[in-house]
Design a protein that fits this description.
This protein has 98 residues and is α+β, with helices and mostly antiparallel strands. The chain has helices spanning 4-17, 88-95, and strands at 22-33, 37-49, 63-75, 78-86.
Length: 98
């Protein structure tokens, strides 16, 4: 995805599929300073229930738990770029475990 609009659409559709998501930051690391910018790396976990329609099909009401990593480049307090990774295959295994 590129741009704020695409990212916002993705997050809203994800929240619609998992309406009770609980987000937790497990670890965060950063380096840099106000002059040279910051680079951050954050490990996170979310838990919720597949309770809404979306790219994974009809709601199954199954509990899901997933972890991911997000990295950011921050300049003057503004995120310039962000990279996010999570194991989507593991998420699908939890939804379609039949």
């Amino acid at each position: 995805m590129y741009g704020r609009g695409a990212f916002q659409s993705y997050l809203l559709s994800f929240m619609a599929m998992f309406p009770d998501l609980a987000f937790q930051i497990d670890d965060i690391y950063w380096m840099g300073n106000d002059k040279d910018d910051y680079i951050t790396s954050m490990r996170w976990t979310i838990q919720g229930t597949h309770g809404g329609w979306g790219i994974y099909g009809a709601p199954t009401n199954r509990p899901v738990r997933m972890w991911g990593i997000t990295q950011q480049h921050i300049r003057n307090g503004v995120i310039q770029a962000e990279w996010m990774m999570f194991n989507e295959f593991e998420l699908m295994q939890q939804i379609y475990k039949d």
